[in-house]
Amino acid sequence: MFSIILYILIGFLILGFILFLIAPKNYHVSRSIEVERPLSEVYSYLKYLKNQDEWSPWSKKDPNMHKEISGEDGTVGAVSYWKGNKEVGEGEQEITKLVPNEAIYSELRFLKPFASTSDAYLKVKAISPEATTVSWGFSGNYTFPMNIIMLFMSMDKTVGKDFEQGLKDMKSILEYSQPRKSI
């Protein structure tokens, strides 16, 4: 009986090791949308963390979410902290680099329900004097055991839907209302 249990345990360890080897080690999710607004106007709106709350799909998942911004919003080093329900968890986003009229880079630090760090970006590109493409994405590395769990889930499908909705809401705000250029 002991040898059967030992063989089963060794089998699970081997299976776990194989899954660890073949499981994804990193992820990248991105979506894009065309906005009928000039590039500089779109960039000026997007660089403010406070404005991102207006179209964030996660703000809608928890309208009572606690939010704080520290530092000077719209500049490198500004941090948006949130603490919400189970759907949005707890974490913060810090602006790490601004490339005027090209990109806003940030670091996402998730604290709950799972601790992780991801690199995020919002990139803008003029497609005409009055139209801009906005690309929103993030990437990071899976740690054990999340990488094994992701064999059965798709980060792209899960988060991609939220990105698509957020971009649609951002487009609506920029095209149909007067965008706020600062807080």
Helix coverage percent of residues? 25-40%
Roughly what is the average pLDDT, rounded to an integer?
A: 84
Q: Give the number of DSSP strands.
A: 7
At the first level of CATH, the class is: Alpha Beta
Main sheet: strand order: 1-7-6-5-4-3-2
Overall 3D form: elongated
How is the CATH topology named? Alpha-D-Glucose-1,6-Bisphosphate, Chain A, domain 4
Structural class comes to: alpha+beta
| CATH superfamily descriptor | START domain
Number of domains: 1
H/E order of the elements?
HEHHHEEEEEEHH
Q: Architecture, according to CATH?
A: 2-Layer Sandwich
Tell me the radius of gyration: 20 Å
Strand content: 25-35%
Query: Which regions are unreliable across 5 or more consecutive residues at pLDDT < 50?
Result: none
Outline the biggest β-sheet.
7 strands, antiparallel
Count of alpha/pi helices = 6
* C-alpha termini separation: 69 Å
